[in-house]
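Lab notebook, design round three. We kept the backbone fixed and only want residue identities now. Task for the bench partner: fill in a sequence for the structure below.
Input structure tokens:
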């Protein structure tokens, strides 16, 4: 027996929904084993020896037959995916004329080299195709707001087919508890967090940005390396080797306030080693970084 992926158009339903069909469900219940599987890249019916055994077992267990890749096609497809994620180049949208990273474009929007369109500018087309103009969607994030229009969601979220995974912009880009600035990148709100939220009606999301959790050097603003990040030194004042070695003018005041915003040190930051050293908080360095990024754009 061959397990072959067919398009959603041909099936009249989603590819993953094939498990709901009685014939396929009965085969799985009876323990019938497929002798071949269809690769989604080359579309060939191949024996199971042509697939990674562990990944094939996972695909079968989760019913993701539309994701199956043979050993020959897997490296090519995964390399393309990684290049898209790791591409640091900027591409100019033909509509808004903004220089944006590759991740800001969908496959369709990036298909025409001389007329690429970012997800935000292509939003109207997606809304029309998915009939979202008058549709009301509930946010499954911590805000729990209901009956929201598509304007409350990002262009990337509109491409998600599963409405149970939709979270609004406010939940996707939460404010930091320390600096009260919104996240610059989407913050995941996964299954575990949703389970915790389901246990109580008074669920409160607690999120601290990297700038506040691991403040950069209080002297020059250089970000910490991975080796300088651990739970024992979270939220604490830190100086890089260069700034720490430099002689600083001792202040008369013990534990002076931030030289940028005059915020006072927390108890975790009040170390005798830096008692009289001038410093800047992570919020000030984050704002400075945001302004520099905006000027560069």
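Proposed sequence:
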């Amino acid at each position: 027996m061959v397990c072959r992926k067919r398009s959603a158009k041909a099936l009249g339903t989603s590819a993953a929904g094939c498990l709901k069909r009685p014939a396929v469900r009965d085969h799985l219940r009876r323990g019938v084993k497929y002798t071949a599987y269809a690769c989604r890249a080359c579309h060939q019916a191949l024996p199971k020896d042509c697939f990674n055994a562990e990944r094939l077992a996972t695909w079968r267990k989760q019913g993701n037959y539309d994701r199956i890749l043979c050993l020959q096609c897997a490296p090519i497809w995964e390399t393309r995916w990684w290049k898209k994620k790791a591409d640091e180049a900027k591409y100019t949208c033909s509509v808004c004329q903004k220089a944006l990273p590759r991740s800001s474009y969908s496959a369709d929007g990036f298909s025409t080299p001389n007329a690429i369109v970012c997800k935000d500018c292509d939003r109207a087309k997606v809304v029309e195709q998915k009939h979202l103009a008058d549709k009301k969607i509930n946010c499954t994030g911590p805000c729990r707001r209901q009956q929201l229009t598509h304007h409350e969601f990002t262009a990337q979220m509109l491409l998600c087919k599963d409405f149970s995974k939709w979270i609004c912009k406010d939940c996707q880009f939460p404010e930091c508890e320390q600096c009260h600035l919104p996240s610059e990148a989407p913050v995941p709100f996964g299954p575990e967090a949703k389970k915790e939220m389901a246990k109580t009606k008074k669920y409160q999301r607690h999120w601290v940005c990297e700038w506040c959790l691991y403040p950069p050097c209080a002297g020059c603003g250089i970000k910490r390396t991975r080796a300088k990040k651990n739970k024992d030194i979270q939220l604490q004042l830190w100086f890089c080797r260069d700034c720490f070695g430099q002689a600083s003018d001792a202040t008369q005041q013990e534990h002076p306030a931030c030289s940028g915003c005059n915020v006072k040190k927390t108890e975790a930051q009040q170390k005798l080693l830096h008692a009289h050293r001038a410093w800047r908080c992570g919020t000030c360095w984050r704002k400075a970084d945001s302004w520099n990024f905006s000027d560069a754009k």
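Keep this in mind before ordering anything: The mean pLDDT is 75.
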